[in-house]
Amino acid sequence: MSLLGKALLRGVAIGLGMDENWFAENICKEPTELFWIFHYPPPIIKEGEHPGWGVGEHTDYGLVTILAQDDCGGL
Fold first, then answer.
1. How far apart are CA 45 and CA 57, in angstroms?
2. What pLDDT digit, counting tens, does each position of 29-48 carry?
């Protein structure tokens, strides 16, 4: 994933008309790389109840987030 992230950032830099190594040289010299696995189970909804959450509300931080997608759609 680290190599993919670096390749994506090179592509973003090129797309923005910047030197392809701009991110690597300016803001990614010492990256924080996190690997989290979350499971979002289908909700079991009982009449009149809130369906709940697999993982509570959260925001991503950092520069690039790479998500795996299965054939079920959605996030």
1. 19
2. 888 777 777 766 666 677 77
